[in-house]
Design a protein that fits this description.
The structure is a homodimer. With about 250 residues, chain A is α/β, with parallel strands linked by helices. The first copy, chain A, contains seven helices and seven strands. The interface between A and B is large, with 91 and 91 residues.
């Protein structure tokens, strides 16, 4: 549900991909301005919302400079607890976490992105949710513990998955083959997720317990101990995971 | 390029997902019959092609029963070398390898599937390629070594990726969260592959060398040594891979 335009001014502090995508997502739906974290003294006192979208390590430092503000202040980090605001005299504060991988110069369907909201009070929570609903149809409550788990799960589902594709690309290019040859396979692997759980959709030599193929593939990786190690650990984990369920 | 219908009879030996998808893919384009590997004696002597689509371990045994045939005999395995046919008196033989993950009861766009062909002679190779082009626009030569590398790369790109999604699903469900919340992230992770190499598209705490988040996420996995081990090895591999390129 998209609500009517937010009346309050929104400042987004940051210069990275998350900050610039949040500004784009809010354009036309709120009066939004991107602010360089190094020029915070220029921040007006007219803000309804101040979103801190900087590196996790820098959130506390930015928040300190906002001490005493009457604006709703929220950070956008998956792994930083709400207590980063403790003792700073920011009455209304919270978290405004969009679960997505943000690249520069990429168009995203913002309406699909799930937003996870936490706040010091239910009143602030409702305000942050109203702001999130300007962007997305998927707005949820999540406390700091749940948000950490979401971030952790997204590292496995996105960052580690992408690294496995990097390894595939390397195996192919070292052998005069093209990563494009794998695209239909990757497309179908992802499409299958929409039809079944990943557990039920598991295929390949490990889940078949095809020891002959496992040995043959290990042999091919003997010259690359790092990749061999990843092969062994993931194959063992597939075998263990599926044995536990038998 | 789809060529005109193949005149020769095609038998597909096997009862699994690959065999049944190959039959579906060839329907209307060749006179194709699926054959149970246990009833090979019923096989007519009218075949142009016999495709052996059984488990890797069983290919030799099936091929032995075809000794002396004048048909073109090919197996469909990624990791079995062409020399599995050695000494069997099958004059025309080869490999007909479709690189895809085949699930039962799933519609696939067969025209996209890359086929990798190898044969004992260029004449047989051309015949197998003509058959493959009935199905797909992407038909390539690949010797047994290259095919093994393709299969290995596909284990990383498909089977291992799917297992990481299984782990994500487990982290979420153990914490009262829903895998559906990750779907937009997974969709964008895959979409990004079409715009950049996976190496260039890498995001997350490991590639940022964000040691604070890495430590925090390791803490969350302390009770699960298997998953913690996967976390450490993949994070280290991301860091190593990207350091090597600096």
């Amino acid at each position: 549900m998209i609500e009517s335009k937010i009346k309050e001014k929104v400042y987004v502090i940051g210069r990275g991909n998350v900050a610039s995508h949040l500004c784009k997502a809010l354009e036309g739906k709120a009066d939004v301005t991107m602010v360089n974290p190094h020029t915070l003294e220029e921040l007006g006192d007219d803000a309804g919302f101040i979103l801190i979208s900087v590196k996790d390590d820098a959130i506390r430092e930015v928040a300190e400079k906002l001490s005493g503000t009457s604006s709703v202040v929220a950070h956008t980090s998956g792994s930083t607890p709400i207590d980063v605001f403790n003792g700073l005299g920011i009455d209304r504060h919270g978290v405004f976490y969009p679960l997505q991988t943000f690249s520069s110069d990429v168009k995203l369907d913002y309406n699909e992105i799930p937003f996870f909201i936490e706040a010091e009070s239910s009143e602030t929570s409702e305000m942050l949710k109203a702001l999130a609903r300007q962007i997305s149809g998927n707005v949820y409550d999540a406390d700091s513990e749940k948000r950490k788990k979401l971030h952790l799960a997204s590292v496995f589902a996105c960052n580690f998955v992408n690294h496995l594709w990097t390894i595939s690309d390397r195996i192919l290019s070292e052998n005069g083959l093209d990563f494009d040859m794998l695209r239909p396979l990757i497309k179908e692997t992802t499409a299958k997720l929409g039809r079944t759980t990943p557990f039920e959709g598991q295929t390949g030599p490990a889940v078949r317990n095809d020891l002959k193929i496992l040995d043959l593939q290990r042999e091919q990786l003997e010259s690359d101990p790092e990749i061999l190690n990843i092969y062994n650990i993931l194959s063992d984990s597939i075998i263990n995971t599926h044995n536990r369920q038998k």
